[in-house]
Amino acid sequence: MHLRTYLTFWLSVPLRGDMVSSRAHDIFSIDYPSLAEHHDLLIFDVDDTLTAYKQEIGEQTLELLKKLRQNGWSIGIYSNCSAARTEQLNKLLQPLGIFNVQRSDKPHPDGFFEVTAEYNIPPYRTVMVGDKLGTDIFGSYLAGFAKRILVEPYSATRGGRKADPWNRFVRLFEKLVYFGIFNRDEI
Fold first, then answer.
1. What is this structure's pTM?
2. What whole-number distance in Å separates Cα of residue 112 and Cα of residue 58?
3. What is the spatial order of strands in the sheet that 74-79 belongs to?
4. Most buried in the list 1, 78, 99, 136, measured by CB within 10 Å?
5. Is the keyword Transmembrane helix in the record (predicted)?
């Protein structure tokens, strides 16, 4: 995690009411056809977005990704997972034509820019889908992404291994501050 950029999230929460563009129950409930009118690239986080925490990506998720590719979407993955997990993901995703970036500096925007540069698609034509405000959503906000969709954790909606207690606490605290204390609408 890029600590300086993450701390910027906390210092700027009161000023960034438009950080979350929309919310969805999970990746399966997003209206991708309506997004396709103005966007060409989807970037997903992995853990607790595409699959349960540190678990393999399941068949239902792979089928969704294949369908999105068949419908013309460029798809990128940006995760701050380990190098070993990245290698595992590459073996699974590269045959599908999905670019995967592993960096440990989320929410710094450089990793997000790496994906947009791979596809030569500008940030204003890009959608980020993630489960954490302070990394996925804030980083894509800093990168200038047009749409930032916050999903509920995969493990909460679909089952499977939950994130460790620290990550669950941080995710909950971020939501309480952003949506509760600063009275953001539940979009």
1. 0.91
2. 24
3. 22-24, 147-151, 126-130, 41-44, 74-79, 99-102
4. 136
5. no
